[in-house]
Amino acid sequence: MLRTPLLAAARSPRTRALVEQLPPTRALVQRFVAGDTLDQAVAVTDELVGAGRRISLDHLGEDTSDADQAAATATAYERLLAALRETGLAERAEVSVKLSAVGQSLARDGERIALDNARRICEAAAAAGTTVTLDMEDHTTTDSTLGIARELRADFPWLGVVLQAYLHRTEADCADLAGAGSRVRLCKGAYQEPASVAHQAKAEVDRAYVRCLKTLMQGEGYPMVASHDPRLIRIAGQLAQWQERKADTFEYQMLYGIRPEEQQRLVDTGATMRIYLPYGGEWYGYFMRRLAERPANLAFFLRALATRN
Ligand SMILES: Cc1cc2nc3c(=O)[nH]c(=O)nc-3n(C[C@H](O)[C@H](O)[C@H](O)COP(=O)(O)OP(=O)(O)OC[C@H]3O[C@@H](n4cnc5c(N)ncnc54)[C@H](O)[C@@H]3O)c2cc1C
């Protein structure tokens, strides 16, 4: 019930100004975000890699409406990738990129600018010896994102994409993208979408997730199971077993700060476990989507607000 207003608030500049100033916000944000700076991001990456995790770093930001800002975001990724190379972390840490942060939503020439900036990031990743995964945003961007991914894959075949199981189209997209070498991160989907394009009921989304996962696991690509849902994690393990997939032919992924004990349990089984690790000052949209996913997060936030001095 609270999901809809929270996801609407995630895109409201007025609510953003209010929430960012609330004293308890910072404490909760720290649970989901590595910190504001590159150094903090590298330090948390180092710690998690030491604990057996792989990482996908996200330089926070989205919906950029300024071409200079889009180029600055690509530069921030280049610096991040250089730091991963210099610290020897690139072997275990890649990056995730939102195309709207590198220009996709610009009114003029947005797709071309996003493609050019994403290409810069892929070149820096190739130089560092690691990979890039393109995040997926709301459904109005899906065709554009998959089109840009297709172009980039001609030069960077290791480029990963995210597919969202809640979209009706995704079963077909999974079939298209299940070929050899194809890295696909399957998640449920985090945006507010209309019934015309997306399943609305949780049970329907979960069933669609299983159908999509079956297609990816039966294919020849590299499925990335991005979920904290215990049932789906169990099913992913069974599907992998039925397909006789080895631990290095698929991976589990979770968000930083969510179900750390389960992350450790999966590491202990010998599975590949990657943590999506955001950093930077532009945490608002990401943070609001995490509140929307779990009422307990919002309750914690409101309690902290009510009891502050
Ligand atoms: C690595 C990764 C990358 C992602 N990339 C994208 C993307 O590009 N585009 C996109 O639309 N979505 C993305 N998502 C988000 C995803 O779509 C879901 O919104 C999110 O993962 C919650 O769904 P779930 O599968 O964990 O299942 P849910 O049914 O939502 O949750 C299952 C259980 O996980 C725990 N949990 C889930 N969310 C939270 C939370 N916020 N706080 C605390 N506990 C929680 C709870 O115990 C919950 O019962 C990504 C998720 C991951 C893990």
Question: Your description of this structure?
Answer:
The chain is of the alpha/beta class and 309 residues long. Helices cover 52% and strands 13% of the residues. The protein has an eight-stranded parallel β-barrel, surrounded by seven helices. The radius of gyration is 18 Å and the shape is globular. It binds flavin-adenine dinucleotide (FAD). Residues 135-136, 162, 164, 185, 187-191, 226-229, 253-255, 258-259, 276, 290, 293-294, 297 line the site of flavin-adenine dinucleotide (FAD). InterPro entries: FAD-linked_oxidoreductase-like (IPR029041), PRODH_bac_arc (IPR008219), Proline_DH_dom (IPR002872), Proline_oxidase (IPR015659). It is an enzyme of class 1 (oxidoreductase). Its cofactor is FAD. Its EC number is 1.5.5.2.
What is the residue-averaged pLDDT? 93
Overall geometric form: globular
Largest sheet: 8 strands, parallel, barrel
Order of helices and strands: HHHHEHEHEHEHEHEHEHEHH
Number of helices: 13
Give the cofactors and ligands.
Answer: flavin-adenine dinucleotide
Total number of β-strand segments?
A: 8
Which consecutive residue ranges, at least 5 long each, have pLDDT under 50?
Answer: none
In helices, the fraction of residues equals 40-55%
Cofactor: FAD
InterPro entries: FAD-linked_oxidoreductase-like, PRODH_bac_arc, Proline_DH_dom, Proline_oxidase
EC number: 1.5.5.2
Organism: Streptacidiphilus alkalitolerans
